[in-house]
Every structure is written in C-alpha cells, then in structure tokens.
Write a structure and sequence with these properties.
Elements lengths: L4 E7 L3 H18 L5 E5 L3 H7 L5 H9 L2 E6 L15 H10 L4 E7 L12 H4 L3 E7 L7 E9 L2 E7 L4 H16 L4 E6 L5 H17 L4 E6 H10 L6 E4 L1 H14 L7 E8 L5 E7 L16 H13 L4 H16 L18 H14 L2
Parallel strand pairs: 1-2, 1-3, 3-12, 5-10, 8-9, 8-10
Antiparallel strand pairs: 4-5, 4-11, 6-7, 11-12
Helix pairs in contact: 1-10, 1-12, 6-7, 8-9, 10-11, 11-12
Length: about 375
C-alpha cells in the first residue's frame, strides 16, 4: 500500500515556525513508529499572493483535493491589510473550506492540568475539561442569500439570511454522533428553536437522525444562549456539542477560553469520505499568524502539533498514536516547559519554539 499523503501549507507569520516542529514529529512517526507519510508543501495566504497574485493558486487547490489531509499553519499579516477583499490572505483558507466542502468543524476545548490556573474560571470548574464542539461550517447565516446592504426609504439596511437545508443539518448531525461514539457517547444539540424557524428544523432533523441511526447515543437539546451560560457555569457536563455556523463560531471561542490559552488549541475541518474512506480534511491551529513575534523563536507550536494529533485520529484511524502525542504534550507541560505565552504571573524563563519541539520529541522517545 502507498503511504498516506499530506499537503503542508505553512502560510504566513509564525505558520512556518510552528509547522517546522510538526514536520519533525511527522518524521519521528516515520522513523520510530513505521508510519511514513508522503509530504508535499505549497503556499497559502499572503505568501501565495506575493508569488502568484492570489491567496491560493489553482494548482495548490487541486493538490488539496487529491491528498489524504491538509495541514495549515496560519494566514495573514499587516502588510496585506490594504489588499482588495477578494485577494486577502484569508480568502485562501475560505476557498479551501468551500471547495473541499468541509462542513464539519471540530473544535476541542481541553484543559491540561498544568495550565488549569490560566483559565479565568476556578481550577475545579475547568481542570480535566475535555469537550468537543462540532460547528457546521459551510452554510447558515454566513452564506445565506439574500445578503448585503441596501437603502430602504432614507436609511441603510443590512441583511443576512439564516438558511439551512435538511441535508445540511443531517450530515453535520451524523458527524457529531459518530464522534460521540468514539468519546463518551453523549451529544448536546444547540439552536434557538424558540425564536428561529431554522432552529425548529435543526432540532427536528437532529432528533430524526438520532432516532433512526444513533439511538445508542445520548442526545439532549439546549437553546444556544443557555448553552453559553452552561459552558461558563458547568462546562464538564458536556461531551460533544453540535450547533450551526453562527452559534458554533461564538460558542467555540467561549469554550476555547475556558482552557486559558487560545493559542493551545487545534481544530479539524472535515468533509465527506473520499474513495479511500478517509474524509476530506484540513487541520489547523486556532491561533493566528502573530506577526508581532514572527521570526523570533517565541511561537508556541503546541496547537499546530495537536492539530496533527487530530489528523492521526480522524484521517488515519491512529487513535492510539494520537493519544501518544497528546500525552507527550501533557508530560512536557507537567514538567514545566513553557513558551513565552504560557508564563504565569510568577514569570520564569521561556523556552523557544524549537526547544518546545525538542521536549515533545524527547517525551515521544520516552513513550516507546
């Protein structure tokens, strides 16, 4: 059998720095775990615009459609702020999501014990937190028509349309139920069925899919505003949360900050299975390009490394190896290794991006 294939799009800012550490870990899996990957690299975002005049070249898009998974670093930077909206670096990422039809966005919120005091909530509320938000990513109010700003009478009116089809809801619901079966077998679906017709349909379809195909999974429903309150009040009551594009955007950012460090969190965007059974997939850290620290060796590579762990789990059915990598990260943090963004109020001496990679590789070696 041929090796699984990866396309690395390191992007802009700190993207190449954090992705360098991921590439070292990919090499480690080939050398130490007999899991070789065929890796190609290309450009996305500002660096692609600099070379091609577009944030994502057609040839790069074609590669992304062919590989088993795409690993992306970060896009954007102040030098591109004045570009036309159509060629801004972020359009490259949006094109990947749209043309690969990556409708299921997985955003974990996991609080490592060593970092529990970083949260704005009490340690006992967040320590051991491990929830997953499944956000529908390619429809809803961000894509619905009609949209725009027009004039009615003597004033301007802004219009966005919340629109979901039955099939769009069904496929993201299935994604959440399948994920729950690999975790604690519990899903909470969040919408606003009390005031929105799209929320009524959302609840109906999720319930129907549950009854027909996933009755073994525990399902609950919650209004999204109550869900936001419950995330702050008692987040550990949740395992998998499934919700629409708008609410998922808001709830996943709120959940991310429960962990105390937005820069520590990975994400996965998944589509339908390809001919080989693997889903269309793009993995990326949640953090941005951080132009203020680019090139200084200060970037924290953990979110990008954990994104590769998600690839191991969801694209390559290597859950045990994903566990190994996540445990290595947890051990390094427990041993006190900290990049500059993870220093607490007591300060300390931060380690560099490469030194954090070194520590994680050493922990992986120790796991053998």
């Amino acid at each position: 059998m041929s090796n699984p294939t990866l396309l690395i799009l390191a992007g802009d800012g700190i993207g190449p720095e954090v992705m360098n550490e991921v590439k070292r870990i990919i090499t480690w899996y080939g050398d130490k775990r007999d899991m070789p990957f065929d890796v190609t690299e290309d450009l996305v975002g500002g660096c692609a615009y600099d070379k091609h005049g577009t944030p994502l070249a057609d040839a790069t898009m074609a590669k992304a459609q062919e590989v088993d998974a795409v690993l992306l670093g970060a896009v954007g930077g102040p030098k591109y702020d004045d570009l036309d909206f159509s060629v801004k670096p972020e359009r490259g990422l949006l094109r990947l999501r749209k043309e690969m039809d990556l409708f299921s966005n997985l955003r974990p919120a996991q609080c490592f014990d060593a970092l529990a005091d970083f949260s704005s909530l009490k340690r006992e509320i967040v320590a051991g937190l491990d929830i997953m938000i499944v956000r529908e990513l390619t429809s809803g109010v961000y894509f619905g028509e009609p949209r725009g700003i027009h004039v009615e009478g003597n004033e301007r009116v802004g219009v966005n349309t919340q629109r979901y089809t039955e099939s769009e809801i069904a496929r993201v619901a299935r994604s959440a139920f399948e994920l729950a079966r690999r975790r604690s077998n519990k899903v909470c679906s969040m919408e606003k069925a009390n005031v929105m017709e799209s929320g009524v349909l959302w609840r109906q379809v999720v319930t129907e899919i549950h009854e027909k195909e996933y009755s073994d999974v525990q399902l609950s429903h919650m209004y999204a505003d109550n869900g936001a309150m419950q995330l702050v009040r008692n987040p550990k009551q949740f395992d998998v949360i499934v919700t629409d594009n708008l609410f998922g955007d808001l709830l996943s950012d709120a959940a991310a900050m429960l962990t105390g460090s937005l820069g520590m969190l990975p994400s996965a965007s998944l589509g339908l299975p390809m001919a080989n059974g693997r889903p269309k997939a793009l993995y990326e850290p949640v953090h941005g390009s951080a132009p203020d620290i680019t090139g200084q060796g200060k970037a924290n590579p953990i979110a990008c490394i954990l994104s590769f762990a998600m690839a191991l789990r969801y694209s390559f059915d290597a859950g045990a190896e994903a566990d190994r990598l996540e445990a290595a990260v947890e051990k390094v943090l427990a041993d006190g290794a900290r990049t500059a963004d993870l220093l607490g109020p007591d300060g300390g001496t931060p380690i560099s991006t490469t030194e954090m990679g070194d520590a994680i590789l050493a922990a992986l070696d120790a796991s053998l």
